[in-house]
Amino acid sequence: MPDSSWASVPLSSRRSRFPVTPGRVLAAAVAALVLVVTGLGWHSVDQLVSSIERIGNLGLGGGKSDGATDILMVGIDSRTDAHGNPLTQDELAMLHAGDDGEGGLNTDTIVLIRVPNDGSSATAISIPRDSYVDIPGLGMGKINSAFGVTKFTTQQKLIDQGVSPAEADRRSTQAGRQALVKSVANLTGITVDHYAEVGLLGFVLLTDAVGGVEVCLNNPVDEPLSGADFPAGPQKLNGAQALSFVRQRHELPRGDIDRIVRQQVYMAQLVHQVLSAKVLTSPSRLQDLSNAVGRTVVLDDGWDVLGFLHELQDLSGGQVKFETIPVKDLNGWTDNGESVVRVDPPAVQKFVAKAVGDDEGEGDGGIDPSMVTVDVYNASGTGGLAGQAAQALTAKGFRTGTVDNWIGGPVQSSRVLAASAGSEKARAVAQALGGLPVMAEPGLPEGAVRVVLASDYSGPGSATGSSTFDFSGGGSTATPVPPAPPIDAGTNGPKCVN
Question: What percent of the chain stands above pLDDT 90?
Answer without folding.
Answer: 22
